[in-house]
Amino acid sequence: MSAVDAGGPVIRVRGLRNQFGAQVVHENLDLDVRRGEILGVVGGSGSGKSVLMRSIIGLNRPAAGEVSLFGEDVTAMAQDERARIDRRSGVLFQYGALFSSLTVAENVEAPMRELRSLPAPLMARLAALKLALAGLPASAGAKFPSQLSGGMVKRAALARALALDPELLFLDEPTAGLDPIGAAAFDQLILTLRDALGLTVFLITHDLDTLYTICDRVAVLSQRRVLAIDTLDAVAQHPDPWIQDYFHGPRGRAAQSSAQRHGL
Ligand SMILES: Nc1ncnc2c1ncn2[C@@H]1O[C@H](COP(=O)(O)OP(=O)(O)OP(=O)(O)O)[C@@H](O)[C@H]1O
């Protein structure tokens, strides 16, 4: 951690506006993500969760507003300067987004190759370490993504996101498509890695169990902005109809009672 970013939020978004043609997705959106927290980002389909993540990681240029990472305003940063900041983040995209023509180990090495400074044997050793961190057997490294189960693809994508020892991890619906047991195991892995590596985690999810078991705070995207951001219990009290339906509908009640049964 540099002296500059000690203490302040790791992600700070102010007055964000995103628009595609006539469709305004975000308007005057503010968000702070605190160091070391797992922030769950929820919202209806099309509420702009992925666009928000893409705006923060620099894949989407906002129409207006400011994004700061680690205390530095990245909105108007030159590309090489931005690359220096980007190396401190890892991203797990929805569906994993692995290169299908590369082996799993080569996928994990891909971000290291971009640095052009590491010898091949070291990259191979680091890739093996990242795969182990993500809970994959060593034998997975030589396989191609098409030879892996859905859960293993997610773990391989997580290993790749961890390739450059990030401080900040972005996860876009990491448990989507996993069976409940696989999803719960993945949740625990994220929690363990956050604790062991001191990560800050921006986590988009539809999975209420994930919110109940691993998120420190929850941000709800609605009406083009972050409508509520707080602990899950506090957010669940918000009178907004979508929030009430989401947290207190049948699925919300089931996730809550499951969390209570497990003493969370
Ligand atoms: N590149 C783009 N061009 C045009 N419209 C876009 C683009 N990217 C996103 N959108 C639109 O912006 C809105 C928000 O999309 P986004 O993918 O962020 O939603 P989301 O909250 O992540 O949804 P979901 O939960 O279904 O994944 C959608 O209406 C989408 O169609």
TrEMBL record:
Presence of the UniProt keyword Nucleotide-binding in the record: yes
UniProt keyword list: ATP-binding, Nucleotide-binding, Transport
SUPFAM superfamilies: P-loop containing nucleoside triphosphate hydrolases
Domain (ABC transporter): residue spans on this chain: 11-248
Domain of life according to the entry: Bacteria
InterPro entries per the UniProt record, alphabetical: AAA+_ATPase, ABC_transporter-like_ATP-bd, P-loop_NTPase
GO function terms (MF aspect): ATP binding; ATP hydrolysis activity
UniProt key word Transmembrane: no
SMART domains in the record: AAA
Designated name of the protein: ATP-binding cassette domain-containing protein
